[in-house]
Amino acid sequence: MQAWSLDEAIAYYKGQDAPQNQEALVALLREVQEEFGGVLPVGIVAELARQLEIKESLLAAIIKRYPSLRTDAAPNLLQICGGGVCGSKKAAALMQYVTKNYAVSNGGVSAKGRFSYSICGCLKQCGQGPNVKWNGRVYNNMDVEKLEKLILCKTST
Predict the structure, then answer these.
(1) Is residue 94 within 8 Å of 135, Cβ to Cβ?
(2) Cα within 13 Å of Cα(101), Cβ side
(3) pLDDT tens digit sequence for 111-135
């Protein structure tokens, strides 16, 4: 079995027209992420942009658009439900807590804690809200204390 090579992966996806074909570009990003332990190292993203002759800002926009893609600067994704019952005062308290304590606003990356943050639509679990989603897993009946424990537990590894 041949060892994986970044240059060979780039060459293959260039042949798939990765710079102009977003599906091929996303497939390349996913392959690179898998090879680098589940995150896209920022330096590798810069190298991809250079070799594909595209702007880093384009790659950053694509990475932001696909929640499954994560850089090593923000390897986790926190989403707080902002719809339905969750859009209540309790959910608003969670949003304020994250904004204040992690210096991050909706759509941004936390100053500490290594996660990107967004307010999402209804998670369809209104009876158990407020709800948050961490890396795709939904957590119910969330309060500030539980949220802090979740963030600390999941980012300390």
Answers:
(1) no
(2) 14
(3) 776 888 989 888 888 888 899 999 8
Residue whose structure tokens are 């680098």: 36
Query: Which amino acid type is present at position 16?
Result: Q
Q: Residues for the chain: how many in total? A: 157
Backbone CA torsion sign across 113, 116, 122, 123: negative
Give 29's contacts (C-beta < 8 A, 6+ positions apart): 40, 48, 59, 62, 63, 66, 69
Sign of CA dihedral 138, 143, 145, 148: positive
Query: What average pLDDT does range 33-37 have in this prediction?
Result: 91
Distance CA 111, CA 91 (A): 21
Structure token pair of residue 120 = 């999402």
Q: What is the dihedral of CA 52, 49, 33, 12, to 10 degrees?
A: 10
